[in-house]
Amino acid sequence: MPMLELDGATKRFGAAHALDGCTFTAAPGRLTGFLGPNGAGKTTAMRAVFGLVELDAGAVRWRGAPVGPAQRVQFGYMPEERGLYPRMPVRDQLVYLGELCGRSRPAVGQTVDRWLERLGLADRADERVDALSHGNQQRVQLIAALVNEPELLVLDEPFSGLDPLAMAMMADLLAEVAAAGATVLFSSHQLDLVEDLCEDVVIVDHGRVVLSGTLDELRASVPERFVDIRHRGAAPAWSALPSVEVVEEEAGAVRLRVGRDADVDAVAAIARRTPEIISFSYEPPTLSELFRRAVIR
Amino acid sequence: MSGWRQGWLVARRELRERSRSPALWFGTVLMLGLVVVAIVVPAVLEDDHVTADVGFTGETPAGLREAVIGQGDAVDVTVRVHRYDGMAAGEDAVRADDVDVLVVGGRELVWRGDADEQLRAVVTGAIQVLAVQDRAAAAGIDPDVLAQLSAPVPVGNRELGTTAGRSPDDEAAAYAMSILLLIAVATYGQLVLTGVVQEKSSRVVEVLLARMPARNLLAGKVAGIGLLGLAQFAVTAVAALIATVAVESVDIPAISGDVLVWVVVWFVLGYAMYAVAYGAFGSLASRTEDASSIAAPVTTLLLVGYWASLFAMGDDPEGVGAQVASLVPVTAPFAMPGRIALGAAAWWEQLLAVALAGTAIAGLAVVAGRVYTRAILHTGARTRLRDVWRRAGTTEATETRSNPMDRSSTSATTLIALAAAAAVGGAVALTTSDVVIGVGAGAAVFAVVSRAGSARARHRSLHS
Predict the structure, then answer these.
(1) pTM for the predicted model, two decimal places
(2) Which of chain A's residues have a Cβ under 8 Å away from the Cβ of B6?
């Protein structure tokens, strides 16, 4: 049973449709990547979950029931525009945000201390937010979304502006939160990262869902496969076989597109015409390719 | 999670965070100091006037010294007599203000500048009494009988105010209260304004509103800053009461416990009304620098309301103008406490004014909550009130980033401007003994200082 469900969500700003019958679900214990080009309606959809945008039509449901203030205090949200009280001490601020969700002060305090410890900020707990470095402010912002031990965690571009170490930390943490049973939905433009991290993806364009499902299913359902061959020596005429298309070719490397039902042995036979194979892979399309196919410009 | 609890959490955060600020404590001490000084200093100055120094030179009739002191006692003037040898020494003493008047040979009074009428009456009275005694003795009248006949009769003074049973002192106290109310409502209203804008410009508001409805946030903010203001205001009112008792000017019925309670009630009502309006207008601004210009309509209404109530009151606290001013919610916070202090408001008027103000606040809260909810998440160029009203929702956020660490100098500027305006206005009002001119001068100073302050803020933001 899906935990989070957007059903026909529609929102117009003037003449523009930010959301146009946007429908998708997100399941517990999994990471759902929420993808789409800029202006596709990702932020509006996320804001709609938190009542920050009033929908013109459609609904947001949580465990089958419409979402209201009583549900939202069990959610965690990290907006794209990061924001905290700059002059408020870190721990006080996080405890305050947790209390707003209806949790008792001691309970929030424990959660906050655990996360501060986990993200290496325990010794900065009493400092003002504006005294922290940019990276540490990002960490505090993340904890702000976790102070109520949320059942649903929604993050708008959590990876933007992070250095590679911080990105790895964020990825581990999201996986950890999902593994603990929460429903995690996040938007991102880093498709490689989403591919590594997420079980499910939702791709939106012009306010509509153009592709959604588990990443494996989506990739498997596409009627083509890609063969990547790295080799030494002279290259044969790749397109000699029927139903093989050269996507990219450079010295010593080639990417071929073949039909899903193509004979793998026949494809492998082409590879063997090179003097020496360094690597050979037969794979469904990457998320980037799925994305480009789904979002036609 | 109830809305009340969220509202209380917001209010508690305001109290806790703002009480950390040294500026708050400095402001409280400054306000206390000003109020106490304003009450104590005039009383002390008045005390000085009841001692008079009288110089004697030349042939002075026997008994004149005692006669002058006796005459002085009759009108509560303590006379100190000094003796000078020679005219020159005496005149020097007058010039040096060592004595208020020099009596030459018991027949001539020498003043520095204009004569003090009261002191002249005391001294000439004493001289007349002595002359009468001398002539009576010459005419064979028993000096004891004469002394009995000519014993001075104490004559009191009473200054009539515009309202029966109240003096000009009461009126001054009523004016002081309404100025204090203006400063308090404006100060805490501005805190709400800058608080709202800071939450919006630092983007923390999106995090907050993901957890609670906008009305809880606005209500909690207004309540928290209001509680802070109430505490500060109540402390000031108590200090005023103590100072009044300490300098023994308790004969001012305008400053009494029940009047001060009403003043506090009207602070709460006036603050609630203007703070909610400030909060709604604050939500329209995206940058702290824009806060005061966007909220200018509220500030203008506040000042116009104050002046209107002052004019109405100055005319006749029991007149129709004052009656209307004390009932209309915009002017009532400044007019009604003054009328109550002067005993000019009937009980039903007081209740009606509270009911009207309460209704206005409730209506305003609905309107302001609607504006705030729709505008608070709209960033980018400033939001127009019209747009918020017309559209059924917020416009999608545009990408104008403002520095979240941006500190506002808006509230500081307004506070400085208000303090300067109050000081200059008060001084002018005292020296010209004309409240209208004083208020005009104060308003001019406020306008100049706040303009200069915002110009400086703009200049700084351009160069940072």
Answers:
(1) 0.74
(2) 100
